[in-house]
Automatic annotation (TrEMBL):
GO function terms (MF aspect): DNA-binding transcription factor activity; sequence-specific DNA binding
Organism for this UniProt entry: Paraburkholderia antibiotica
InterPro entries: AraC_XylS_family_regulators (IPR050204), Homeodomain-like_sf (IPR009057), HTH-like (IPR037923), HTH_AraC (IPR018060), HTH_AraC-typ_CS (IPR018062), Tscrpt_reg_AraC-type_HTH (IPR020449)
Keywords: Activator, DNA-binding, Transcription, Transcription regulation
Designated name of the protein: Helix-turn-helix transcriptional regulator
Top-level taxon of the source organism: Bacteria
Pfam families documented for this protein: HTH_18
Amino acid sequence: MARIPRLTTTLAYDRYMAGERLVSSVDREWRHLVLRSYREPAAQDLLEAPGLRDLTLMTLASGAEHLERSLGGRWESADMRVNDLWCVPSMPVSWRWRAIGDEPLSTLHVHIERGLIDNVAQQMGLDASPELSLGDAMRFHDPLIAAMLAALHRAARDPADSRLYVDTLVHALAAHLLQHYSRGNGARHAQSARPERLMPRRILRVIDYIRANLAEDLTIAELASQAGLSSFHFARVFRHETGETPHQFVTRLRLEEAARLLRATDRTVLQIALEVGFESASHFSVQFRRGYGVTPLAYRLRG
């Protein structure tokens, strides 16, 4: 197999994809971005791809999958569902995945020119060539970004949508990314007058605490104390940073750990439910079906 380059262009990236291309904006008179969507195979043992110069966001347009990524030789994984987001880093990366459930998998890829990011950063009074804290994120949640990507996807499928509409969307998307995810020395956010934000190290501290105590009755007050904030401030800022309420976040982590245990162990559904913090097998089954579309037993049988 030929060695992949460290970096490639947005137009050339298509050749490294495993799926069947469904939609492409390459032939549209769009500026500053390229959008593509793909119907993905239900399982992929290994896909190796170079990094990208342009900022690239991906999301599931349909289906759900167990996705694994190797970045710098370290594998990590997450169960991905529609509107979960991830970013293509600026270095070679290896992927593998398998579908969860029967719904076909399709992905949406949006590539934003680095030049646009820099131009919008200048207009916002940020440092030149700002770094965004997304490249090392296996998955992140931001309902507004997910909605913008969905709107761009609809526009790519509708020849009647104007270039001005798309330009407005991509500028708004760039501004949102810079306002909420830029980092680096001297970066000055336009929203500097807002209350103190929950910094990434505090998020990691709280997430580590949640993961270590999934079986416990986690309260807002307890989580807020881990972040060193009042309960009210913590709940508001946590949602701002993660795109989820603390309750939604804890529930998702519990379901992800339960899915892992269903695949990797022969423990009963009740044992797993109690181990990850649900009060009963019935409550767990309702939440699991809501998140994964199947019962825990059906999920286990599908392997």
